């Protein structure tokens, strides 16, 4: 019998929060995984926005290489990755794989990778088989544009997603989750936090469908909702948003456990962790419409690919265009501090990475300066939340039956997986 593994990448989960929520709400499936063998991990990077980020650490986990080796520092940079990812390594040994949602990842030409779903922010990658792009279209559009949405694009995305679910009979076979969806929307409303949980629900249902169809020896499912809720809603006490998140995660873990075969080990990993910073005065802002913003500044560009939170890549036709844009954006100041962190592309790559670098409180009528001119801050930017969780280099692994070292680098898990399949 071929060996199998299911890896659930439960992004950035905090162990204490899982334990507290499991006891408070009697979450049987979370309680079950908390009985698994526990290992702690650490990564080499220590500074957020400069390596201590999920789009860096999951590349390390998947390749077995630390950041200074793989050199993937931003979302969307996976095309420059020169090292094979775990599904490529296993595929070269004849081991079939299935990957759903892995962050900053690429299928490349791994013929043994039977299905592959990129995360919504990795703009260079498409899903495989191609029909899966019908699922990807809506979350990819929404994740990048949720501050300024187009009704036409939303309708197109919903139409593709509906066709995907109809074709795969997911509505028919998952009627309980349909009622759960209605309950979530009725109780919490149609807002970003609800939609983040719904995305994890339908990602899991679709993953289980494709896992059953292709029966891969090695499979990965990436879930991001708990990271989002910890960043945005993690107060001193568990509130209704965190309650929603934990109950959804508990249900999904139950579905995933039920979907595994008799001797299929489960590994649950967070990649890196978070600590609570509720009321520490850290504010998250995002651009309302970066295309419109750049046009108003007189910047010539080809396209903008927005990132996960308040960052993105701007692409240009020439080095001169990139340099001019960089100079304009670099001049932006608020309260005497730089508004943006900027990183220019190298060689023939005429793209500019930008990220809002200011995390202080901005008053309603506050102005900022750019090339000596004043603009109202909230004309171009919006406050997402006062941040409640920040990244830490310490992580956790819960393993049902594969023996792992009690302490390890997050990027060394790959060694145990390869050893398991020998």
Give a quick summary of the entry.
With about 425 residues, this protein is of the alpha/beta class.
Feature tags:
four-stranded antiparallel beta sheet; 16 helices; 422 residues; 40% helix; eight-stranded mixed beta sheet; globular; alpha/beta
Protein architecture, described:
This protein is α/β, with parallel strands linked by helices and 422 residues long. 40% of the residues lie in helices and 22% in strands. It has 16 helices and 20 strands. It has helices at 15-25, 28-33, 54-63, 67-70, 86-91, 133-145, 151-167, 170-173, 175-188, 192-214, 225-233, 240-259, 290-296, 319-330, 377-380, 413-420, and strands at residues 5-10, 37-42, 97-100, 113-117, 218-223, 266-269, 273-276, 283-287, 303-306, 311-315, 333-334, 337-338, 340-344, 351-356, 367-370, 373-376, 381-386, 389-392, 394-399, 407-409. The chain has an 8-stranded mixed β-sheet. Strands 9-10-14-13 form a 4-stranded antiparallel β-sheet, covered by helices on one side. A two-stranded antiparallel sheet has the order 7-18. Helix 9 runs antiparallel to helix 10 (192-214). It is globular and about 70 Å long.
């Amino acid at each position: 019998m071929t060996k199998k593994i299911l890896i659930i990448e439960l992004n950035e989960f905090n162990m204490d929060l899982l334990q507290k929520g499991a006891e408070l709400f009697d979450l049987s499936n979370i309680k079950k995984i908390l009985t698994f063998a526990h290992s702690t991990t650490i990564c080499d990077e220590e500074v957020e926005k400069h390596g201590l980020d999920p789009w860096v650490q999951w590349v390390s986990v998947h390749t077995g290489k630390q950041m200074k080796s793989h050199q993937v520092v931003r979302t969307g940079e996976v095309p420059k990755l020169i090292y094979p990812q775990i599904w490529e390594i296993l595929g070269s040994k004849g081991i079939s794989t299935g990957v759903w949602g892995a962050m900053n990842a690429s299928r490349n030409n791994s013929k043994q990778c039977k299905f592959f779903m990129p995360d919504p922010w990795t703009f260079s990658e498409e899903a495989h088989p191609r029909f899966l792009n019908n699922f990807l279209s809506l979350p990819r559009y929404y994740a990048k544009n949720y501050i300024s949405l187009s009704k036409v694009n939303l309708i197109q995305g919903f139409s593709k997603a509906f066709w995907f679910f109809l074709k795969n009979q997911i509505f028919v076979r998952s009627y309980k989750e349909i009622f759960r969806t209605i309950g979530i929307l009725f109780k919490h409303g149609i807002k970003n936090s609800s939609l983040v949980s719904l995305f994890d629900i339908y990602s899991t249902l679709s993953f289980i469908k494709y896992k059953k169809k292709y029966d891969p020896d090695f499979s990965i499912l990436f879930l991001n909702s708990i990271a989002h809720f910890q960043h945005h809603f993690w107060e001193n006490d568990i509130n209704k948003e965190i309650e929603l998140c934990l109950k959804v995660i508990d249900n999904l873990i139950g579905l995933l456990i039920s979907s595994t075969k008799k001797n299929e080990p489960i590994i649950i990993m967070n990649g890196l962790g978070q600590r609570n910073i509720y009321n520490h005065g850290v504010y998250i802002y995002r651009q309302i419409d970066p295309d419109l913003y750049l046009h108003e500044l007189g910047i010539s560009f080809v396209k903008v690919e927005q990132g996960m939170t308040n960052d993105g890549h701007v692409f240009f036709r020439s080095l001169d265009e990139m340099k001019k844009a960089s100079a304009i954006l670099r001049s932006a100041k608020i309260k005497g501090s730089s508004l943006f962190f900027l990183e220019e592309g190298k060689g023939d790559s005429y793209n500019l990475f930008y990220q809002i670098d200011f995390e202080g409180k901005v008053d309603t009528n506050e102005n900022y300066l750019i090339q000596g001119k004043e603009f109202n801050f909230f004309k171009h930017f919006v406050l997402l939340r006062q941040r409640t969780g920040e990244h830490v280099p310490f992580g956790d692994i819960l393993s049902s039956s594969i023996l792992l070292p009690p302490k390890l680098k997050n990027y060394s898990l790959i060694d145990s997986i390869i050893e398991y399949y020998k």
